[in-house]
């Protein structure tokens, strides 16, 4: 209403959201990493384009040579698996493009865009279905849950490296 004065600010609106709430809805975030084979095969632009065309927002990205310590921490849950040492060696064999993407159900949707871990099981139209043959060289990593995304983002990025910005196309994507 014109000339109306705003009401009192509810105390609940000042409360800090829980870490989980900060990563849900359209603010949900996921961690993706284009692996050394994806970088060497010049697939970076193609992969980024798939997420942009879907309507997700890129909020952090860096090209880096991942240290062995970072990779061991990232893949710590797999440390007892027989392929663990090969995985760490492979991931440190060249540059990685680390990214944070944001959007509604981005963790789940990113996993669908990426495809099954084993390219033999990945459907055509997915990144792994289109570009991969072998499970050991499957081009991209994606967080498997919101909790994993939070952990991985904190591991790979400082908070000041993640940019909050207004995407002018959001009203064309979300109701």
UniProtKB/TrEMBL annotation:
Residues 27-164 form the Nucleoside diphosphate kinase-like domain. GO terms for molecular function: ATP binding; nucleoside diphosphate kinase activity. It comes from the Eukaryota. One of its GO terms (biological process) is GTP biosynthetic process. The keyword Kinase applies. Keywords: ATP-binding, Kinase, Nucleotide-binding, Transferase. Its EC number is 2.7.4.6. It catalyses: a 2'-deoxyribonucleoside 5'-diphosphate + ATP = a 2'-deoxyribonucleoside 5'-triphosphate + ADP; a ribonucleoside 5'-diphosphate + ATP = a ribonucleoside 5'-triphosphate + ADP. Its cofactor is Mg(2+). Belongs to the NDK family. PANTHER family: NUCLEOSIDE DIPHOSPHATE KINASE. This is Nucleoside diphosphate kinase. It comes from Varanus komodoensis (Komodo dragon). The gene is NME3.
